[in-house]
Design brief:
Blueprint: E1 2-3, H1 10-16, E2 24-27, E3 34-38, E4 44-49, H2 57-60, H3 64-70, E5 74-81, E6 86-100, E7 105-116, E8 123-131, E9 136-139, E10 148-149, H4 155-159, H5 166-185, H6 190-200, H7 206-221, H8 230-244, H9 255-264, H10 267-280
Antiparallel strand pairs: 1-5, 2-3, 3-4, 5-6, 6-7, 7-8, 8-9, 8-10
Helix pairs in contact: 5-8, 6-7, 7-8, 8-10
């Protein structure tokens, strides 16, 4: 991941991460029904079906400038995962949500925009919140609201509709802000907290019990938590997901990359919708 906070537009972001030159599709002599994807620096990226519609990075992210201005956000980070087969650009609004200014309990709004070059990742964006007191990242409410566009010959036209998502993005962040206040105002005792944790993290093995004990401990003693409210419970769970859960390295991706991908695109992102629902049901 590369810091792109000083970039003024998405072209500057792509130049900073070395993705400003056109990608190419080239024949693969050994496999006539496939083609190779090469980046603008002549590096091989992936092998794809002969009919694969390659979307240039400049096209995949050209709408981000409009959303940045409409949402009053700044560029944050950009880079690649999966050995260059996935690319992302993120926007951030610092201290967008203030929960307890005296304790420094504030949250940033963050948007991650994704594209891919091997067909495994749809063009998409994910709305996130980052709690600064403990650097917990969590998916905003209504995780399904993020638009996804499949790789197809019509993808460029569909991506242009992203600029129409401004109202929806603002609504999700406002809905999440309102929900956070409800969680802050909802008192939760130890019994209720354990019941929620048991529903979300089932299993009776020793490992499963250790995970549940770890989460309960973070509910009461995690960064910025006091073990008193539904907000403490939600943050105890997200703290475990961010900092306690063991992520493994895989071929072409280290532990940090797999953790990042899971939180923004994968299983951890999907789990957060259940976490929101469970914690809000305590109200």
């Amino acid at each position: 991941m590369t810091n792109v906070k000083d970039c003024e537009n998405v072209n500057g972001v792509l130049e900073t991460i070395g993705a400003d030159q056109p990608y190419e599709l080239r024949p693969v002599p050994q496999f006539p029904t496939y083609r190779g994807v090469f980046d603008g620096n002549d590096n091989p990226v992936a092998i794809v079906n002969k009919t694969y519609p390659l979307l240039q990075p400049t096209k995949a992210f050209e709408y981000v400038d409009v959303l940045k201005n409409e949402l009053d956000m700044d560029f944050d980070q950009a880079g690649f995962t999966k050995g260059g087969r996935r690319m992302f650009v993120s926007l951030r609004k610092t201290n967008a949500i203030v929960i307890d200014p005296k304790a420094g309990d504030t949250m940033d709004e963050v948007l991650y925009f994704w594209t891919g070059f091997d067909g495994s990742t749809m063009n998409s964006f994910t709305q996130m919140l980052e709690r600064l007191v403990c650097t917990n990242g969590m998916v905003a409410m209504d995780v399904q609201s993020g638009t996804k566009v499949k790789h197809s010959s019509q993808q460029e036209g569909k991506l242009e509709n992203y600029v129409n998502e401004v109202t929806g993005i603002k609504h999700v962040y406002q809905e999440t802000t309102d929900a956070i206040q409800r969680l802050v105002d909802t008192k939760v005792n130890a019994t209720d907290a354990k019941e929620v944790i048991n529903r979300l993290f089932s299993g009776e093995s020793k490992r499963a019990e250790n995970i549940k004990e770890d989460i309960f401990s973070r509910f009461s003693r995690g960064q910025g938590n006091h073990g008193e409210t539904a907000w403490d419970l939600l943050n105890g769970i997200t703290e475990y997901q961010n900092h306690g859960k063991a992520h493994r390295s895989s071929k072409g991706a280290d532990v940090a990359e797999n953790r990042f991908t899971s939180l923004t695109l994968g299983a951890d992102a999907n789990l957060m919708q259940k976490v929101w629902n469970e914690c809000l049901s305590l109200n």
